[in-house]
Amino acid sequence: MSLEQVQVVVIGAGISGLQAARLLRSKYSVKILEARDRVGGRLQNHRFANGDTVDIGGQWVGPGQHRMYRLIEELGATTWPLYDSGDNLLYLNGRGRRYRGTIPKINPLALADLGIAMARFEAMARSLDPAAPWTHTKAEHWDSVTLDSWLQKNCRTRLARELFAVGIGAVFAAEPAELSLLHALFYARSGDSLETLLSVTGGAQQDRVHGGTAGLCERMAQQLGERVQLNAPVEKIEQLPDGRLRLWHGAGSLVCERMIVALPPNQALRIRFEPELPSWRDQLLQRMPAGACIKCVARYEKPFWRDAQLSGQVASPTGPVRVTFDNSEAGKSSGLLMGFLEGDTARNLSAVSADERRERVLECFAQFFGQQARRPLEYVDKDWSSEAWTRGCYAALMAPGTWTGYGARLREPNGPIHWAGTEFAVEWFGYMEGALESAERAVAEVEAALQREEHLCEVVPV
């Protein structure tokens, strides 16, 4: 049997890998290898018994994410705005306090403290170049401390620190002590601002996609047809003497000229490379662990909280559910409440039984919205840290020293090996928009390299 040969192999059929293949397919032969039995990566749908579909992975798009809106239109999908009417709740000291906007109403001293810290953080983030955060004059200092250290110095009240940490958990699925201050600033700047990342209307949580974001990936895969191979985890990549790459995967092997790795950094470490990747690349990937997140969704007959003029949005420093949203789909009768378990809470509740975790989540929902919330028609949660080919969400984290030590080479190809995925984006790092941006950049690198090689191989008449 002859060995399959293509010009480009893409590893990973998440939205970044699928987009890379779509961009390459008209010019080059391309193959996507996906370890799972589905496409979508960190995007996944769940279908309830009544037929309603909900995202249990990444779901939101918002202003400034031009690539995502363009893709949605290209694929014939539509969006609707997340429900954002009525009062939000701050659940504090055993009771809910109503408020409107991004920042809840708290005692004036803590409110002023939080406002000053937010303004200072935003000003620092705006001063960064998101394409090269390590070049900032204060980069070494900001990358030498954690976000938690900065909060301890810049938030004088405990309540302000706790509320800031709730926002950080919602954005990063991590604790402030896990993050380099420079990474937190870069992340906010990459997505316009921290306020944008925390906001619904006009922010990163503004819109949802009918049919789910995983449905977009399924449509992309349909366009690619047999170029997509599922159940094919890549185990080994060998660079041949002629510069080509040979890949061994769960269903066989093939040879290619160029390769795009579109995996979470922690999953790229599973692959054996011969020769080994440069030590700096391996060290960098080791320094990019994933956040910890469990996404929880309860389905009710209707969104009953709206009867009380509540938006379904809750912030709670005590948790274990610290953030909730009304995830009900426009045009459907069911009411969906969605909550996040993040950081340390997600790690702790990942270890308990599914029944116990369900009870802990529904207890929170009942505290927020009344006893009716304790009795959903259906409930589902997704522990992304336990997902075999993901092992964490939403995206990779950068601990102190990572950006200044390795950032300048983050997106650099390793010979014929190129890197894509949201963790390799300049704009909207951690979001689907960033996944698409990185795919465009990796494809441009591959096309330029293949064109150079074609030029060198041309036979010039004597």
Automatic annotation (TrEMBL):
<comment type="similarity">
    <text>Belongs to the flavin monoamine oxidase family.</text>
</comment>
<feature type="domain" description="Amine oxidase">
    <location>
        <begin position="15"/>
        <end position="446"/>
    </location>
</feature>
<dbReference type="InterPro" id="IPR050703">
    <property type="entry name" value="Flavin_MAO"/>
</dbReference>
<dbReference type="InterPro" id="IPR002937">
    <property type="entry name" value="Amino_oxidase"/>
</dbReference>
<keyword id="KW-0560">Oxidoreductase</keyword>
<feature type="binding site">
    <location>
        <position position="16"/>
    </location>
    <ligand>
        <name>FAD</name>
    </ligand>
</feature>
<feature type="binding site">
    <location>
        <begin position="34"/>
        <end position="35"/>
    </location>
    <ligand>
        <name>FAD</name>
    </ligand>
</feature>
<feature type="binding site">
    <location>
        <position position="423"/>
    </location>
    <ligand>
        <name>FAD</name>
    </ligand>
</feature>
<dbReference type="Pfam" id="PF01593">
    <property type="entry name" value="Amino_oxidase"/>
</dbReference>
<protein>
    <submittedName>
        <fullName>Monoamine oxidase</fullName>
    </submittedName>
</protein>
<dbReference type="InterPro" id="IPR001613">
    <property type="entry name" value="Flavin_amine_oxidase"/>
</dbReference>
<dbReference type="GO" id="GO:0016491">
    <property type="term" value="F:oxidoreductase activity"/>
</dbReference>
<feature type="binding site">
    <location>
        <position position="234"/>
    </location>
    <ligand>
        <name>FAD</name>
    </ligand>
</feature>
<feature type="binding site">
    <location>
        <position position="340"/>
    </location>
    <ligand>
        <name>substrate</name>
    </ligand>
</feature>
<dbReference type="InterPro" id="IPR036188">
    <property type="entry name" value="FAD/NAD-bd_sf"/>
</dbReference>
